[in-house]
Amino acid sequence: MHQDAASLRVTYLVHAAPEAVAARAEALMLEQTVELPRAAAGRHPWVAAHMLGCVEEIQPAGAGVHRVTIAQPLAVAAGDPAQLLSVLLGNASLQPDVFLADVELPEAAFDWLPGPRAGLAGLRALAGVTGRPLLATALKPMGLRPAQLAGLCDTFARAGLDLIKDDHGLADHPFCPFEARVEACLAAVDAAARETGRRALYVPNVTGTPERVHRQLEFARRAGVPAAMLSPMLVGLPLLHELAASAEGLPLVAHPAFAGGLRVAEAALFGKLFRWYGADAVIFPHAGGRFSYSEETCRALADALRAPHPRARQAFPAPAGGIRVEQVAELVDFYGPDCILLIGGSLYEAGDALFARTRELVERMSRAVAEAVR
Amino acid sequence: MHQDAASLRVTYLVHAAPEAVAARAEALMLEQTVELPRAAAGRHPWVAAHMLGCVEEIQPAGAGVHRVTIAQPLAVAAGDPAQLLSVLLGNASLQPDVFLADVELPEAAFDWLPGPRAGLAGLRALAGVTGRPLLATALKPMGLRPAQLAGLCDTFARAGLDLIKDDHGLADHPFCPFEARVEACLAAVDAAARETGRRALYVPNVTGTPERVHRQLEFARRAGVPAAMLSPMLVGLPLLHELAASAEGLPLVAHPAFAGGLRVAEAALFGKLFRWYGADAVIFPHAGGRFSYSEETCRALADALRAPHPRARQAFPAPAGGIRVEQVAELVDFYGPDCILLIGGSLYEAGDALFARTRELVERMSRAVAEAVR
């Protein structure tokens, strides 16, 4: 048995018959690092001693499925976020009998994993909100000009939302260039703040090739944006790490676009990897909307983002995806105060009554919090 | 009906009952761009005219499944590879009733999509091989020092392989730094070339955050490496685009690590997107090995990589994943001469007889080609 506290531990669900699972687990362990049978890898004593992990535990987990825990030396990950993904689910992603259920990293991994820059507490401080969930919405649809998006910012900010983010589909389109959008939307929340005394956080979406994302983020930072959003699976998860680890940067809200379908438990991907790689808040589809997560998945994901950790700050869960204004009290009850409720369509459907509908959302939040305290 | 030749066309398999599929297809079309119901998006005439796509075709495709073709204006992709992924399968990746079956892009997309830098013909010219598949292997296991990997290079090159690549698990480990590895392996293939008169292509693996990958690739280029390998889904698919589109760069071999499990047809992801984003060769698991692709999938993937295209060069299919030395003739027959056969374990299992076993592979290729010609 491998008993090294410095190992990383990966738990897979493996589809295999009881008599076959031990050999399958061993093959999986080797596939993820040395990619050779044990006999061939073992010809090199240093490799055998330092690169080979071990199968620590195999437990039945339903008909034809076993829960397999594999320990790998942390050294195989080479202090790099892309290489860590490879060790966790590189080749194994191509093997449909394998599902990544969970991952645990030793503290030493956080010598090179940044974790959230601001985290839950830092984003809360930026928003100036205590004791209740933050209320957020998205600017859309794609196709609006910067001035039109700024008009929406104005409405949402004056109505009292805490965070106003770009829809993840807002890229650097010629009809709505990133720079012009950021300047117009920032000016709008500033103007509203002079009226209301509270400044909503405007969070632009950065997307594109790594060079474009760096350029957009730098522009946003200089313009005075408090945080930015990106979709780690669209731009590449290692870019999230790179941005979060850089000395100069912004808190980052992560969007789940292109992250579905992988054979990875949502709580492991969004709740752990996204947080470890540097997301300060993670958007995910709440149960019951037009996506398919169960309440159990949502709870596990939110719990993972907020779990105490010796090296990584807590991150905000941000449930979204079809939440109705009328569900606010129910969601405060489900997630507690440490979340960001992201509500889009249920506001936009009000059309010309957008301000009134947004006020209703804000008031429902006040009442829900007052009742929760009582 | 949308009849615009400048639209991008995405075909999805959608799990929906016949009476529900039209509404589901319309919702999917909107989800991927404006992310609002048609009524809300349609409030803005310019958005309705220029951002909304249309459902072009719905065909039954088995019990409870329909083949849905959606046309989206190319403008929604903003000339950007990350945004294109978002339009194809951003939010829809989180909806398990949707599978991306195929995608067609108008020629105008290749104003900003680079396609392969060297392509099949260019890599062939670099290898100096005509009329037959290239023979390739991988350097492993992780844990070997640069001098040990160089020793393997020497053996493989003298035995007559055309291409010798790093295993995708070879990162920038302290015990085998990228720079030292590249220098040692290049020196080894050079020394062998002075003996044999033929220079094998040494292809190092670049991996890590975008900044690290850029640094590694630049070092490799200056050192005289002919091509490099990367795993687009580990490092982020838009980084492949960035590297392929840069004026100074190298031909790129793409590895499929972390690319499995997505609800995307392999021929669309590996055969089209990888090629369009700039891969000169694409490694994928051949049918019947320790992965799970069918012969039909392998053939569709290889055909897509080699299909004539008005703007993008052909790319090399590189089947791998458990191919045996004894299968060479069978694979030449299956893929024809325009492929790279990547064989690892079946060589390494020879242990001390590695040179002889590699010679056997080379000779089997000669015989297979001679017989195919006869």
Number of strands of chain A: 12
Rounded average pLDDT of chain A: 96
The fraction of residues in strands of chain A falls at 15-25%
**Sequence of strands across the biggest β-sheet of chain A:** 2-3-1-4
Could you estimate the helical fraction of the residues of chain A in percent?
Answer: 40-55%
What separation lies between the terminal Cα atoms of chain A? Answer: 52 Å
- Counting helices, strands and paired strands, the structural category of chain A is alpha/beta
The chain pair forming the largest interface, with residue counts per chain, is: A-B, 85 and 85 residues
The whole-angstrom Rg of chain A is 22 Å
* Low-pLDDT residue spans of chain A: none
Bulk shape of chain A:
elongated
Largest sheet of chain A: 4 strands, antiparallel
The H/E string of chain A reads EHHHEEHEHEHEHEHEHHEHEHEHEHH
Strands, helices and their partners?
The structure is a homodimer of 374-residue chains.
Chain A: E1 7-15, H1 21-31, H2 38-41, H3 45-50, E2 54-60, E3 65-73, H4 81-89, E4 98-104, H5 119-127, E5 134-139, H6 146-159, E6 163-166, H7 178-196, E7 201-203, H8 210-223, E8 228-230, H9 232-235, H10 237-245, E9 252-254, H11 266-276, E10 281-285, H12 295-306, E11 316-320, H13 328-335, E12 340-342, H14 345-348, H15 354-373
Parallel strand pairs in A: 5-6, 5-12, 6-7, 8-9, 9-10, 10-11
Antiparallel strand pairs in A: 1-3, 1-4, 2-3
Helix pairs in contact in A: 6-7, 6-15, 7-8, 11-12, 13-15
